[in-house]
Records
---
Amino acid sequence: MKRLYQRLLEFAPLFMFMVVLAFFGAQSSRFLEPRNLVNILVQASSTGIVAVGMTFVLLTAGVDLSVGAIMFVAAAVAGKMALAGLSLPFSLLAMLVVGWLVSAFNALFIARLRVPAFIVTLATLFIGRGLGLWITETRAMNLPDSFLQFGSARFLSVPVPAWLFGMAVVLAHLVLTHTSFGRQIFAVGHDAEMARKAGIRTEMVMAKVYLISGTCAAVAALVTLGQLGAVSPKFGEQKEFAAIAAAVLGGTSLFGGRGNVLPGTLLGAVLIQTIENGLVMTNANPYLYPMITSVVIFVAVFFESLRNRVSRPFSA
Amino acid sequence: MTIRKPVAAQRARPFTQWLVGLISSEYLVFGLTLLLVALLAPFTPGLVSIANLLNIAGYLLPLFIVAIGVTLVMITGGIDLSVTSVIALTSVVGAKLISADGSATPTVVGLVAMLALGAGLGAVNGGIITCLRLPAFIVTLASMMFLSGFAVWITQSKNIYNLPASFLALGKQLSIALGLTITLALCVQVVLQRTVYGRWLYAVGQNPTAAYISGVPVRAVTFAAYVVSGFCAALASVMLSARLETGSPVLGREILLDIIGATVVGGTSLFGGKGKIAWTFFGVLFLTVLDNALNLLNLSQFAITIAKGTVILLAAVLDATRHRLGRQNA
């Protein structure tokens, strides 16, 4: 009985996902159409890609609050370059470079100077948003059509954003489960001191996860640009919270050492988007969206906590 | 500890010793604020004028009040991300109650309702965190989303005007806000330093398991910290709503990071067990003065944001250094 209970909790996120699908499927016939399901995947891809990077960081018991700001700066730089007449590949490269620079800055302070990740990335959030406002001159910036074309392009009849999301998930899954770096991430997250004594270069592992997170944020900025075709001063705002919610919804612990990208983070990101999409499809009151999403996040975290109740008796 | 001088200090040259002492001082942030004012005052007309000081106080007091509650929560090793949503929700609920367009109940009833609602929301957070043993970060993140969504929903994202004059008076007279803030700050400081509850709070933050084994009611102590945090947010909401003369569903939305930043700049640890109300005051004062001075210098918003971020980062590096020095000397 106890075993069965444990097994059931193991599948709680998947179960919730099924319930949500069944619920909205019963409400609206268009909801379960393949076209809409692909749509959900495309809409989830930008938050999902950020959440994949965030999962790496959370696994080491860190947090990256700067991802939204990275997206903003990357998009602002790319937008400026595109408006100056440079071709798309240059803009893409510039976005990645921005992501690497900001996250290298994060990594320097977190891994090398041992400042808590929460504060460092909070500071880079401020600095990044400031930089982004400076570059965009606090105005919305409409981008050339090449970005929108990129966002709606299809490869093998699947939209490019969904491809990018899928690739990020598969790549992350392979790195986490099939490489020594992946195992080192889990080791550092479980107990950094122990990992160091076992000969793992914890500094390098910590630095790398923030670089991965920054790279993911830059790619997500590209995806969002492809969908919006514009950079507004609110670009990427609160993305950090959405990404953390998606990762945690997928069963990744905020205390490090436990979690996965496949199916976890993929499911978490898609679940949030599915609910939002379903609410739109069933013509629900838009004011209810944030409330329903937060309740679902809460319920998922609650189920998740039941699984490891015994191991953490006094978490505050 | 008192007999044997720390090895590092014995070997250090006087200057290094002085530097170490300076970095370890709890008045460092306050000193930096004074330095900032001294450096910028000659170039910044009106920085030390009475009007501007009143202006600074008007911004500082609500921020400080919220930060007091957040400090208590951070001492327990938790975090409260929902404070700004509590501010927004109590603002619109209170305004709906007392507004001439709403149910026009007496101001006192509205005030009590706002404060009770704030404490109640804090109790819900605290209850969930302690009874269901969920991480504070994610619980308060979810309640931040929920409460702000709720505040927007019940007002249909419209501001509420026509508040009674007796309520607006609270925002017009700085002395009321000042008196309230000082009383609250002193009370909390006394509780932290002179009562068993204060000791328990630090004990829970330093090591919850050890505290539990020593007989500290860990859950009740943590729970109370969140209730105070909700109450403080509601009190700040009263001041902000009265000053802006509206009940707004997005009230305080931008100050969340300022609150946490100021608390951390002051020296309260995110890992719990360390923090003081005076430190938080220094942190809030520093960020507010910095913001105000840069504004008076006509710097644009982006420069101010970048400056704030840099300051938070420097404070964090300083804290990490202080931590390392403390460990060496221990």
---
Amino acid sequence: MELIKNVPCPFCGTLCDDIICKVENNEIVGTMNACRIGHSKFMHHKDATLYKKPMIRKANGELVEVEIDEAIEKAVEILVNAKRPILYGWSSVSCEADEVGVELAEELKALIDNTATVCHGPSLLAVHDTGYPVCTLGEVKNRADVIIYWACNPMHAHPRHMSRHYFSRGYFRERGRPDRTLIVVDPRESDTAKLADIHLQVEPGKDYELLDAIRAAMKGHKILYENVAGVPRDLIYQAVELLKSAQFGNLFFGMGITQTSAKNRNIDAGICAIEELNEYGGKFTLIPMRGHYNVNGFNHVCTWTTGYPFCVDFATGYPRYNPGETGTNDLLQNKEADAMFVIGADPGAHFPQRALQRMVEIPVIAIEPHRTPTTELADIIIPPAQIGISSEGTAYRMDGVCFTMKKIIDSDLLSDKEILKRMLERVKEIHASESKMESVKEVTSPAK
Amino acid sequence: MIKGTGDMMSKIILTPKEQPQVPLEVDTILPDTLAGKTIDEIKSMNILYGNTEVELQEFFDVEGESGEDPSELQIEFNGDVYNTKRIGQGMTTGEIVVKGNASMYVGAKMKGGKITVEGDVAGWAGQNMQGGEIVVMGNAGDYLGSAYRGDWRGMSGGKITVHGNAGREIAEYMLGGKIHIIGNVKMLPGIHMNGGILIIDGNVISRTGGEMKGGTIIVNGRIGEFLPGFEYLGVRKDIDVDGEVMQGLFYKFRGDFATKGADGVVYTATAKNAHIVP
Amino acid sequence: MEYIIKNGMVYDPLNNIDGEKMDICIRDGKIVESVGESAEVVDASGKIVMAGGVEPHTHIAGPKVNVGRMMRPEDSEKDVEAKSGDRRSGSGFSVPSTFMTGYRYTEMGYTTAMEAAMPPLIARHVHEELVDTPILDKGAYPLLGNNWFVMEYLKNGEVEECAAYIAWLMRATKGYAIKVVNPCGTEAWGWGGNVHGINDPAPKFGITGAEMIKGLVEANEMIGLPHSVHLHCNDLGHPGNYETTLASFDIAKNIKASPKYGERDISLYGTHVQFHSYGGTSWRDFESEAPAIADYLNKNDHIAIDVGQITLDETTTMTADGPMEFDLYTLTGFKWANCDVELETGSGVVPFIYSSKNPVHSTQWAIGMELFLLTKDPGKIMMTTDHPNAGPFTRYPRIIAWLMSSKYRNDLIENELHAWAQKRSSIATIDREYSLYDIAQVTRATAARVLGLSETKGHLGVGADADVAIYSFNPETQDASSDYMTIEAVFRMADHVFKDGEIVVKNGELVKPRIDGRTYWVNCHFNEELEKNVISDVKKKFKQYYTVNFENYEIGDGYMRRSAPIEIK
């Protein structure tokens, strides 16, 4: 048995990089240090169906195994003929694959978008309006005396996050947990909330009101109402005093606040609150609790290649951007989309009903190793080698620190990047021959 | 001067054929660009269909007569163009009439002239508008009279009137001009507003004037829930709004003190709003 | 492939060639003595020929640059380019996307650009973006002025240990030069504070900016790096900061430059010095002290600077000077991004609008111009805008035109700028005009020499890389002083550009958008025994204080398409 050390975990945005994989006969037979979710990603599931070959759905609905070239040819044909294709997903593949994806979208005049569209997309919209005062996770570990978890439950969603960054000792916090004050804002008595020194049990969907009150109180204004969002005014004053006296505070926030009621305006107000807290002598930063291990990586790749983090529309040949118009769900729900390519995501499991209805109506191509609700809707399925397990690539942690994901075992399958490259080359060939045809036509057609 | 629909005007009538599922974009079709062109030239002007450029005549029958002077030119979309975006985007003069619904960005970046939509408009009508007038006889979508993503300089001039209801985050980052909604409005009207006037005759669900720093919002209907970062200043009678007197009794609030140096004003009719007074 | 560029007027300060009509021969990517009959002829009669431009200080890749893009869709939306053939699309006026960055530098005749601030922990990200920045040769400077290891070594007087650590770090991050930003100030920003001047110690670490600068300059020369310490002084943007600037420069005065590669003769590089040449005590009595800085440059040979010229645009500021960006955020009320990086550095990003109507901005413009025009030897000064801080790099052609035409400057001063430009600086009294030779110096030659790259960059002598720019301007018939608009136009879009002996811009059109440039980095070897000890100490601290394992920190060779290591032994 071989032990492979310092493996970054390809599951959540915490990207723990201290996993040890036990490998026997080109199979991962065990892990050390990983949480349960991470462990199950590395291990082969008995219940899960792993695809071994590409498949195409026949007219009778049956999936038939085909060779990779045929699957790619068919996928390309669908995308080249579409007038409003979507390339969606990108959060569980490498940055190198994302880069090819952006070029494919550009070549196809398609729309490219990642899973942020259904998780931290509203955070990105808030970043556009208010900024992004962040730090890396080590700053929290080494300096933080006040930590806020707002609408997230890392005890379950990011299982090793708190032990690595909150309970752990840091350079200026030699005792770890006893040196820190924990504030949790959550309507639920979550397992994270149970650890809190102060739990602000906000009414569901009233985060914006609570933040509005906190920010007014910070500046010395009286809060207009005695009770805001289910929290007594005096408790808000008390929490504000604690925040203002922090040496180093950090806000972690999750989808409980990004996807409820005021959505991007919750985050907008939250970001402003953190920015303003820097005016009282201490330091304050925030970190969004990102889900997929490389959701952040796609946002970065998409930004440096196009100028925008997600929801990029290439219909005009140059990148255009306006979530609400150019998001995957917008296109599906408005029935604009006429073909959809999915990679490194499972919209079949996570999208609203109206979007799924459109997915049923249009051709769907899935680059996906497992059987998922998305592959149930797909007309073409191409299984790739998995990043961080059977192929290499770069991924960005929730705080922007990046890692080279390891290849632990060999696979017969092509990597995501290879599949995309082949598709891109094929699309370029088709476009080149089309433009040749065009120019021939122009030459031979009689003058008007 | 905004000119009326008098006989003096020349008129181009664009009658939509079937609206496709993949949307059209017609920001090329403005009085500014049509003036001086023949009907045949107009027919072959390019519009965007999904990711492909097509000629206008593929989706519209074109008739009427153009003129040399764009300010004397009216474009009529003679039917429902619910899946046609960017009508009147960037127009500086003349008139556009839509005899049905229109999709997103009606009159975005508009500098002058007048647009009338007899049906509904989708999101971002009047985005970053600088001047001119938009009248919507039906309902308006989200982000009416707002700013482009990330821009803190929103609608700076002109007037928008919506006879029906409007969506979320209208008048976002508004700097100047006037928006008047005769119906009801969803949450967050006047978010980050810095100037200008927003009048809502109907009801607002919640978060009126969130993070506003300046400008004036008047709500004649009922505000479902109000924000705690405002200061209550008492009852005012017959308020003066930009030289016009609005009669009646109003509660006056100032804020939103969540933001530094806030000096925005919200008036709400007293009749239905006793519940938001502390 | 062989080329001969015929009959151009060549400006090549490193070889003392000032407008001589001569032919440039190119073979296999290099400038050579002569070429065969079959060489392709590029006719440059009546045109200017210079080496490819060398950018010593720009922000084009990495986490804060990308956050600048991510935070500002309104900046991206106003400047877009569609895909065209092999040329990729892009967007961004003040922070262009990576492909657009590569194309636009190339179109201006620049062929080398150095990313001036790389957080070591996030080096992968910087290199990933550099790989996507086509055509240009490039490198990146790891940030070390607030690094905990460096602070501890230097506090303990362990300069050699510090040098060993830096040697390892250059290899681990594929770095090119030591970058120091607001030494100790960014660490203080970890607690929401800042330091003031060079003698104010970092909280808890107890070391001062002056001690950091001195120790790092010593370590730099001990290792023998090609470039000097690259210093962004303390107190950036504060009225009265010129004293800090001069005191910082003076620290390196008696330390001898000892590069083991290249022809550098300076021991310190001061960057965007326009932001560091301020007099007065507040924004009310703010005034230029550029003459004092220029005077220092005129009297001392151990230092060279780049200017950071204000271009009077709406732009995006970004720097590892975290506390400065926070001040800018409180000043403007605009959106603000920040990223503090554990044990190493920090950064901030804020949009900014420089307006010709604003008294301070007008004076800042004048201060930059004074630095250019009062520094006698253009071998000590380089043209930058600290892109995008003082303005986007795409404004270089305008700065060239300002430098070459006192009429252009005076029109601006008289008709557009706030009166402070005249009252608070001496700019209105200066009638010096740069020659094309001077321009070649401040845009190519000086940078290549101080970066240690002048063997192959910044000149057109035999053996140089065949990076050549041809501009359609005839100095024999055209006068830059009066025809400044033409100067601006020709330097925006070169007539021809060669990169490594290939034509990438032909008749004013970018024809090869897909070629990759080199990544320069320093393959340092310094006292390997000592380095072993140092690294074992570093490893222990890694476990305790970093959130990344030591083994995942080094980035490996996979993040460069054309690795160009400079061996230092």
